[in-house]
């Protein structure tokens, strides 16, 4: 049965702290557990829209969740229209700024609203947005952190086999160039010399360090250099993109589509990779993808592989999906991998259903 419109009723939120099979060890910190905010948007018509947020810091759930509840409390009884609500919700919070918590809360609601509407239409989100449910090319980003080099060969082989991947992400920017070169050698030995390597500095370099290190690695056959320097130093990115042969990737820290527009206008990168939590959910992604598409800039995803698969299916310059399985433990049916692609399930909505027994096991007291 299809439903013509949906109305805001309320929202249920939970926070879970999930153990990571491979701890994150990067220049931005070390994480052995991963916080997730689960969002269930309730409607008067009985349809529930589902989404989640990954706010990095466990304590941050204490101030993101109240913002979500405040926004929904003020919308009770109103028709859900996410293309309009994106701006309505941002205006409700713009006096405290449109970055950080404000955009994160809006993004979580927006994803849940689109999930609800596509469920009401009884269509997968990708098809509801006008695309197909064809498999999406993906690279494995589940490991290869700044861990001991002698562990990388075996780990690379394992990561490749997880979904017959032809591309992996490696974190670089160790203290010495020779250590980065050693890491590259180990990964290629484990995964094969033809493996595509997306390399991420996690903003760990100054512009001077990045110029030296990236030029030194520029003939190493890497697929891209991701975020060598802090994300907001656009003139530095413009210089790197202009000087290097290896493509420069950035965008996971852009808050809202206008930030991506500014980067595209500055020619600050060859590739862009919005993060759904920061770019503004589904609505923010669609606007950002239009900007990138108009400029011919390829777009990849950052985190949120389930929603991202649907959105890459309707993105003109769709590039790569970043695959992580970090929320798989709490999903009833994790998305399936094969031949280096992620399958979009033939079910209504984004395809996310919680395993409530497992959620309860990892649920946080807040």
Biggest sheet features: 5 strands, parallel
Sketch the topology as an H/E string, one letter per element.
EEEHHHHEHEHEHEHEHEHHHEEEH
The percentage helix is 25-40%
Strand content: 15-25%
3D shape: globular
User: How is the largest sheet built, in terms of strand order?
Assistant: 5-6-7-8-9
Number of helices: 13
Radius of gyration: 20 Å
SS-based class: alpha/beta
> What do the pLDDT scores average to?
96
Descriptive notes:
With 366 residues, the chain is of the alpha/beta class. The protein has 13 helices and twelve strands. The protein has helices spanning 61-73, 82-93, 101-120, 125-128, 152-161, 177-191, 207-217, 234-243, 257-265, 276-279, 281-295, 305-312, 356-362, and strands at residues 8-26, 29-43, 48-53, 136-140, 167-171, 196-200, 224-226, 248-250, 271-272, 321-323, 337-338, 341-342. Strands 5-6-7-8-9 form a five-stranded parallel sheet. A four-stranded mixed sheet has the order 10-4-12-11, covered by helices on one side. The longest helix has 20 residues, at 101-120. It starts with 7 loop residues before the first strand and ends with a helix.
Structure keywords:
four-stranded mixed sheet; 19% strand; five-stranded parallel sheet; 13 helices; 12 strands; 38% helix; globular; 366 residues; single chain; alpha/beta
Gist of the model:
The chain is of the alpha/beta class and about 375 residues long.
Sequence-ordered SSE layout with sheet pairings:
Elements: E1 8-26, E2 29-43, E3 48-53, H1 61-73, H2 82-93, H3 101-120, H4 125-128, E4 136-140, H5 152-161, E5 167-171, H6 177-191, E6 196-200, H7 207-217, E7 224-226, H8 234-243, E8 248-250, H9 257-265, E9 271-272, H10 276-279, H11 281-295, H12 305-312, E10 321-323, E11 337-338, E12 341-342, H13 356-362
Parallel strand pairs: 4-10, 5-6, 6-7, 7-8, 8-9
Antiparallel strand pairs: 1-2, 2-3, 4-12, 11-12
